[in-house]
């Protein structure tokens, strides 16, 4: 970018991009999400070395390699645990967690519940494409019940997982949904999520052009800005979710729970610990 | 005109310069990203098209930078579009396909130039400051010229054959 | 004692990218060769892109069954040169090899040129453009057919079966493309040709190791599978899902591997032979619950399609490095069974045997397959049927004296299946007495440990425990996918007058000291050959056997396959010492 940084603009989005070129398929929503990440971090003026992007396994989880921050590409489904440990030990860092619907809601489901409950100050972005892309097209927890795949011929027959409902029920402090097709809007949501203390969950509908090309065409027409403003009342948020068809974009819920950050109580010399044993 | 991003009310020519610059910067960066995507997927014909478009937009960006030197553009130029919609000249990530051909890539470029031309023309029609009107009209004309260039360029590349997106090999995985 | 003459074969690799259809072309070539009576093996390699990436289809065509790669390739045909250097280490070439390129692709990349192969060009892209609807991969197939002496008609028929079903309108164009490619190859330098048999053998299969394992499981009696997708095991689950439905069974995609292993323990407790399939990272997750299956004496089969480790490793490549975790990974003293197929066809019988062992011994049987077995396709003679079946010792009638965990002489106690009146018990991971009631008593712990160990150790594993072939005072001990290249090396050594005995282990655990000693009787030097950086098999053998011979460990890690030539070099080096 040829405009010299002014005092008001410390960083630009390109500062957060590594030199590794993404291998995502052209047309994949994750390309847009990566740009949203970069823009959000620039908007927040975060020094890249003070940011960590933590992920699991899957197409979406490739994102840390493409960002010029610290990062951890962990094992399948455990990104939230990694991130919790990192943030608890290093509260000075800004920790972003990236996952997909398989990594985050299937094998990662248990950790999702407890991360929402624990309310550590991290931002959890799940790129939801309703499929397991990396292992070639198995149903994920958010896949429709009648979606035919080799491993579940005729469809799973199971009701899809509703991530926002689970997040709300488990105590997440900030809950939002975005759409990869609106890069600026998604960046805005991520900025808001990072600025809000506590566990911030952003589900981003991010179509898979290879296994679900129907989504690309369909989702653009189905998403809409939520007609109702955000709420800080979990009951109201729950009632909204009753009629949510999965395509309302925006912030659903913003609570006031203080974030969880364990702190030491004192800083005594270690020798002080021996006193209890002395006889 | 429904594919145009919102038309702002410019309060000064400096704001217009800032926006015009930001539009070119974003367009350039987007073409560079698309060129990378295509190169990674071994579609060199289209990677080259997008790389050339990035150079063209880059030249336009450099020219605006030169003309705007000395004008205080403020943070607006550096931050335009970060949290707003894509600019009128920015290619859409979702319109590409790893098997697309040069013709299809150029049609995307043509659409972007055309949309930029219409956007600037709409700004010119709506602005009240005569300097902004003149600048917007000038840029609209410039973008219309780009459309002509792309049309010429398009003549060299035929549309794809039927079944262009048919890849007999299934997707592979690597994780 | 069986000596196998060296296999006459030709190795071909096709590379290309971005929708060129290299994998499909490789499959068509294999199909065509098969229809001409040849046998073959196909493996694949690709870049990290999900679509449009650089791809390599590697084939070995032969006049006899083959399940391993040769030392080198006779022909490399490149539809383009995009990122082909990625495959350089996997495509050994020499001065006799022929590279066919396309002038439109630009110069031959330096890494490939450095191998010193002969290089010719065929204008495949130009030929393709001249045929409306033609594909460059079809032109390449025509070139290959002419080069290696396959009739064009065999390619055309195979194309019709492959592409013709999806896109019948493309058939004519592709037929023309094949013919044009063949014509363009008329003046190319000669490459080795296989003599096509006069009659096409009947009763053959085209199958991958993953499919073979799935079929073996169902033949053995498995009727419940729960699994979680993971490279390179997912195909087992995807093949078994509809297959089980046809045979009175069911498959559930679980939310993760912890759920998978516990679901199959549950199903097995209900009396249904059960199985899951996974890879290294998944097996690691299952370890705790494998202990539950061992302690509760619930039969389960876990197929681990090993990939390059540790951790996420290289998911699409093979290695033999899960032996440690499979044998020693459980906490506590938890004897169980670990078997490993020797190759693609052997995956059927070995998995079938694993079902039998798990059910007969009421324990965990881990099947250590690997990526090179699981994801390679081979054309083979239909494997002979084996009789292994799930034959769980089930309590038929129970009185008040029924003890689920009775300390029988064999160590195997009849299981009451839920539904049998009077047989009610609670299966438990807690240590228990013979009734199954939790107990912390020393005598109960000792009794149950002895029982669980005795049943595994006292069992007669018969001749299936290993393949022992040949005579000589030099022996090679190996396992899994290393077996086939070792076999071929031994056959080549025989041609040079060097006699080597092969001991290929199918039963990894429990150890069989007496049988092993008998297998190595008279041997003075033993080479232990495996695909592992730390030599896991060698260390396992050292832990359980007293070797009288000199032992030479020879091991290297993945991702590159072990080839017969390198084993032959190891043999000759040791013989000459």
What does this structure look like?
The complex is a heterotrimer of chains A (279), B (175) and C (577). Chain A has 279 residues and is of the alpha/beta class. Chain A has a single domain (13-275), classed as Rossmann fold (3-Layer(aba) Sandwich), CATH 3.40.50.970. In chain A, 31% of the residues lie in helices and 15% in strands. Chain A has helices at 29-43, 63-66, 79-89, 101-107, 109-118, 163-170, 183-195, 213-222, 234-242; strands at 51-55, 70-73, 94-100, 123-128, 174-179, 200-205, 224-225, 248-254. An eight-stranded mixed beta sheet of chain A has the order 2-1-3-4-6-5-8-7, sandwiched between helices. Chain A is globular, with a radius of gyration of 20 Å. Chain B has 175 residues and is mostly helical. Chain B has a single domain (13-154), classed as Ferritin, core subunit, four-helix bundle (Ferritin), CATH 1.20.1260.10. Chain B is 62% helix and 0% strand. Chain B is built from five helices and no strands. In chain B, 46% of the residues are buried. Chain C is of the alpha/beta class and 577 residues long. In chain C, α4 (136-148) packs across α6 (171-184). The chains are: A alpha/beta (279), B mainly alpha (175), C alpha/beta (577). Chains in contact: A-B, A-C, B-C.
Overview in brief:
By secondary structure, chain A is an alpha/beta fold.
Itemize the secondary structure elements and their pairings.
The complex is a heterotrimer of chains A (279), B (175) and C (577).
Chain A: H1 29-43, E1 51-55, H2 63-66, E2 70-73, H3 79-89, E3 94-100, H4 101-107, H5 109-118, E4 123-128, H6 163-170, E5 174-179, H7 183-195, E6 200-205, H8 213-222, E7 224-225, H9 234-242, E8 248-254
Parallel strand pairs in A: 1-2, 1-3, 3-4, 4-6, 5-6, 7-8
Antiparallel strand pairs in A: 5-8
Chain B: H1 13-40, H2 44-67, H3 74-79, H4 102-126, H5 130-155
Helix pairs in contact in B: 1-2, 2-4, 4-5
Chain C: E1 9-16, H1 22-35, E2 39-46, E3 55-62, E4 75-78, E5 98-101, H2 110-113, E6 118-121, H3 124-129, H4 136-148, H5 152-166, H6 171-184, E7 204-208, H7 209-220, E8 224-227, H8 234-246, E9 250-253, H9 257-269, E10 274-278, H10 280-296, E11 300-306, H11 323-328, E12 337-339, H12 346-361, E13 364-370, H13 371-374, E14 377-381, H14 442-458, E15 466-469, E16 474-479, H15 483-495, E17 500-505, E18 507-509, H16 513-519, E19 525-530, H17 536-544, E20 550-555, H18 564-576
Parallel strand pairs in C: 1-4, 4-5, 5-6, 8-9, 8-10, 10-11, 11-13, 12-13, 16-17, 16-19, 19-20
Antiparallel strand pairs in C: 1-3, 2-3, 2-14, 7-14, 12-18, 15-17
């Amino acid at each position: 970018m040829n405009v010299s940084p002014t005092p008001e603009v410390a960083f630009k989005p390109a500062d957060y991009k590594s030199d590794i070129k993404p291998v995502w398929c052209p047309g994949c929503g994750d390309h847009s999400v990566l740009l949203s990440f970069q823009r959000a971090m620039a908007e927040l003026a975060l020094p890249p070395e003070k940011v960590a992007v933590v992920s699991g396994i899957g197409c979406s989880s490739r994102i840390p390699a493409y960002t010029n921050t610290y990062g951890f590409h962990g094992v399948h489904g455990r990104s939230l645990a990694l991130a919790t440990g990192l943030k608890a030990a290093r509260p000075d860092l800004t920790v972003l967690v990236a996952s997909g619907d398989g990594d985050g809601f299937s094998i990662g489901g248990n950790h999702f519940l407890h991360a929402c409950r624990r309310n550590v100050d991290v931002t959890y972005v799940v790129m939801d494409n309703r499929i397991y892309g990396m292992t070639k097209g198995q149903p994920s927890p958010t896949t429709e019940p009648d979606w035919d795949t080799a491993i579940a011929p005729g469809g799973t027959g199971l009701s899809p997982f509703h991530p926002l409902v689970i997040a709300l029920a488990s105590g997440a402090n900030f809950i939002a949904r975005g759409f990869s097709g609106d890069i600026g809007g998604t960046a805005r949501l991520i900025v808001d999520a990072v600025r809000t203390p506590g566990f911030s969950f952003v589900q981003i509908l991010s179509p898979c052009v290879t296994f679900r090309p129907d989504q690309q065409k369909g989702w653009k027409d189905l998403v809409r800005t939520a007609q109702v403003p955000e709420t800080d009342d979990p009951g109201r948020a729950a009632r909204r979710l009753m009629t949510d068809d999965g395509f309302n974009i925006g912030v659903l819920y913003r609570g006031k729970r203080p974030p969880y950050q364990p702190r030491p109580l004192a800083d005594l010399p270690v020798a002080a610990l021996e006193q209890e044993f002395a006889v | 005109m429904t594919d145009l991003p919102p038309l702002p009310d410019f309060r000064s020519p400096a704001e217009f310069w800032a926006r015009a610059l930001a539009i070119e910067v974003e367009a350039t960066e987007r073409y560079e990203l698309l060129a990378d995507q295509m190169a990674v997927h071994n579609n060199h014909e289209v990677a080259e098209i997008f790389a050339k478009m990035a150079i063209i937009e880059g030249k336009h960006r450099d020219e605006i930078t030169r003309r705007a030197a000395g004008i205080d553009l403020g943070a607006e130029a550096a931050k335009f579009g970060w949290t707003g919609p894509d600019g009128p000249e920015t290619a859409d990530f979702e319109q590409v396909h790893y098997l697309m051909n040069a013709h299809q890539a150029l049609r995307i470029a043509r659409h972007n130039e055309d949309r930029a031309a219409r956007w600037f023309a709409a700004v010119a029609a709506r602005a009240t400051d005569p300097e902004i009107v003149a600048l917007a009209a000038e840029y609209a004309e410039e973008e219309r010229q780009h459309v002509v260039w792309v049309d010429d360029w398009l003549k060299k590349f035929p549309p794809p054959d039927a079944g262009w997106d048919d890849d007999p090999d299934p997707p592979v995985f690597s994780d | 004692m069986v000596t196998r003459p060296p296999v006459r074969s030709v190795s071909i690799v096709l590379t290309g990218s971005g929708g060129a259809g290299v994998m499909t072309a490789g499959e068509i070539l294999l199909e065509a060769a098969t229809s001409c009576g040849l046998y073959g093996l196909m493996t694949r390699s690709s870049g990290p892109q999900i679509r449009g990436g650089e791809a390599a289809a590697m084939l070995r065509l032969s006049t006899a069954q083959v399940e391993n790669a040769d030392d080198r390739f006779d022909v490399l045909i490149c539809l383009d040169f995009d990122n082909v250097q990625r495959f350089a280490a996997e495509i050994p070439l020499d001065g006799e090899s022929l590279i066919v390129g396309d002038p439109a692709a630009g110069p031959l990349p330096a890494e490939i040129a450095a191998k010193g192969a002969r290089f010719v060009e065929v204008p495949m892209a130009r030929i393709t453009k001249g045929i409306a609807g033609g594909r460059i991969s079809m032109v390449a197939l025509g070139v290959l057919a002419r080069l290696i002496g396959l009739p064009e008609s065999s390619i055309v028929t195979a194309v019709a079966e492959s592409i013709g079903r999806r896109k019948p309108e493309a058939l004519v164009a592709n037929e023309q493309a094949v013919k044009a490619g063949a014509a363009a190859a008329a003046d190319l330098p000669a490459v080795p040709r296989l003599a096509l048999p006069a009659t096409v053998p009947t009763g053959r299969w085209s199958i991958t190791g993953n499919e073979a394992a799935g079929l073996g499981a169902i033949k053995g009696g498995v009727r419940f599978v729960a699994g979680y997708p993971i490279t390179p095991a997912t195909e087992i689950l995807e093949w078994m899902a509809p297959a089980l439905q046809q045979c009175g069974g069911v498959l559930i995609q679980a939310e993760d591997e912890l759920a998978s292993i516990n679901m199959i323990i549950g199903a097995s407790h209900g009396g249904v032979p059960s199985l899951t399939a996974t890879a290294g990272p998944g097996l690691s997750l299952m370890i705790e619950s494998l202990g539950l299956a061992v302690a509760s004496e619930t039969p389960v089969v876990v197929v681990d399609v090993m990939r390059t480790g540790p951790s996420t490793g290289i998911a699409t490549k093979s290695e033999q490095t899960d032996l440690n975790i499979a044998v020693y990974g459980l906490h506590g003293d938890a004897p169980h069974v670990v078997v490993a197929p020797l190759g693609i066809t052997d995956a059927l019988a070995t998995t079938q045997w694993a079902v039998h062992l798990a059910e007969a011994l009421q324990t965990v049987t881990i099947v250590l397959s690997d990526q090179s077995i699981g994801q390679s396709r081979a054309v083979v003679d239909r494997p002979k049927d084996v009789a292994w079946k799930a034959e769980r010792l089930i309590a038929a009638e129970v009185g008040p004296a029924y003890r689920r965990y009775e300390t029988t002489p064999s160590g195997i106690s009849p299981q009451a299946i839920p539904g049998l009146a009077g047989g009610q018990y609670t299966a438990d991971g807690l240590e228990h007495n013979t009734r199954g009631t939790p107990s912390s008593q020393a005598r109960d712990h000792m009794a149950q440990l002895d029982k669980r160990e005795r049943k595994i150790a006292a069992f007669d594993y018969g001749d299936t425990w290993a393949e022992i072939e040949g005579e000589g005072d030099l022996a090679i001990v190996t396992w899994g996918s290393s077996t086939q290249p070792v076999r071929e090396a031994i056959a080549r050594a025989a041609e040079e007058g060097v006699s080597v005995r092969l001991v290929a282990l199918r039963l990894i655990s429990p150890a069989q000291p007496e049988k092993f000693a008998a297998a190595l009787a008279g041997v003075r030097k033993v080479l232990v050959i495996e695909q592992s950086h730390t030599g896991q098999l060698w260390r396992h053998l050292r832990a359980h056997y007293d070797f009288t011979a000199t032992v030479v460990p020879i091991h290297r890690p993945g991702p590159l396959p072990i080839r017969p030539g390198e084993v032959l070099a190891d043999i000759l080096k040791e013989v000459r010492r």
